[in-house]
Amino acid sequence: MGSKNESPEKVTLKRDMGLFGGIGIIAGIVVGSGIFYLGSYVLQRTNMNMGLALLCWIVGGVVSILGGLCFAELGACDPAAGGMVVYLDKAYHPVVGYMFGFTSWLLSGAGSLAAVAIALPTTLQSYFSFSEWTIKIIAILLIIALTAYNCFGIKAGAILQNVSLVAKLIPIVLIIAGALIMGDQNPDLSIIPQGGFEGGIGGAIRTIAFATVATLWAYEGWTNVNSVAEEIKNPEKNLPRALIFGIGSITILYALFNLAIYKVLPYDEVVSMINSDNLYLGTEVAKRVFGSLGGALVLAAMLIAMFGSLNGMIISFARYYYAMAVEGHFFKSQAKLSPKYQVPTNALIWQAIISIILVLLRNLDQLTSLVVFSGMVFNTLVVIAVIIYRKKFPNMERPYKAWGYPVTVVLSVILFAALMLNTLIEDPLTSIIGLVVPAIGAVVYFIFDAKLKKERQA
Question: In total, how many domains does the chain have?
Answer without folding.
Answer: 1
